[in-house]
Amino acid sequence: RRRKPMPSPTAEASPQPDQPGQPGTNSLHIWDGFLLFASHEIVNTFHSHYAASIIFAAQPDSNSESLPIRIEDEDGQRETFRAVVIPPNFAHRLSAPGVELAVLMVDPDWPGFSLAVPLTRPRTLRLSVTETAQHTQTVRRLRSEKVRCTDALEFASALMASAGSGSPASSSQTPAAQAMDSRVSEVLEHIQAMEELPVDINAEEMARMVGLSGERFRALFKNAMGLRFRRYLLWLRLRRAAALVADGLSLTEIAHATGFYDSAHFSRTFREMLGHAPSDLLGKGRSLQIECC
Fold it and tell me: What pairing do the DSSP bridges indicate for beta strands 288-292 and 26-31?
């Protein structure tokens, strides 16, 4: 994978780091199965995506007791957090204006997922983070300087570890996770082994590979993964699209390169799954530093 080239050093004075909560350089570190996004704020629309999200808000200098992350679900219920886990396929919108955030998105089929956060949660999971000051410094560093993949991974690992110490934000009981059907696992392994996701890959083809009818395979897949097979493929294409921004492609070029019908299909899927137009996060003129780790 190619990384976005960094500008050559010049004799000019180095820019000063962004002030807390101010627009500036955002960063995106991408690994196989998870990614880490650091931003000066996030305000999005209702959406849902395959990945679970672990979100941490940097501690403001003025109010260490604030809960600046507001999550609203489809029923209109709102809760506020300092750090939170949002489960996979959970429809919500997030509002944290003027708040520096780190968002770690982890795919449930990533092998380390079960060690980080539960696969199935009826609601959000409130986190108790003990390293608040240290994490705050890291979030600000992610936004103000080029951070190596190894350092970003250390921070991501700390966020994953903290997810094991949370308590449910509501009294709902967590359903017991079901063992994944071996035929679904076989399909996932097959897809993950592909270097590029074919444009014409479909449920019927995967069903034949594991000896099932298309209808039976689609039902098994949704039961195991919590979303339709087609939507899972769209999520994989979006992840690939984020990595291609580092290669300098336009959003239209990225849409075609990742198997979307056209740029409108790409934009619609992006908004449905991430709550933003792609130009809001990935468009030219946006100050986003991307590392494919």
Answer: parallel
CA distances from 42 to 21, 253, 288 (A): 11, 26, 14
Q: Is the dihedral of CA 3, 4, 8, 10 positive or negative?
A: negative
Q: For residue 240, what are the CA distances in angstroms to 54, 218, 268, 291?
A: 20, 23, 16, 13
CA dihedral 213, 216, 105, 241 (to 10 degrees): 30
pLDDT digits (tens, 9 = 90+) for 6-26: 333 333 333 344 444 455 678
The answer to whether the CB of 69 falls within 8 A of the CB of 75 is no
Name the residue with higher pLDDT: 167 or 45.
45
Angle 203-209-115 (CA atoms, 0-180°, nearest 5)? 75
137's tokens? 């410094």
d(C-alpha 149, C-alpha 151), whole Å: 5
User: Which residues are bridge partners to 84 per DSSP?
Assistant: 55, 126
CA gap 47, 91 in Å, rounded: 5
**Burial (CB count within 10 angstroms: exposed 0-12, middle 13-18, buried 19+), residue 225:** buried
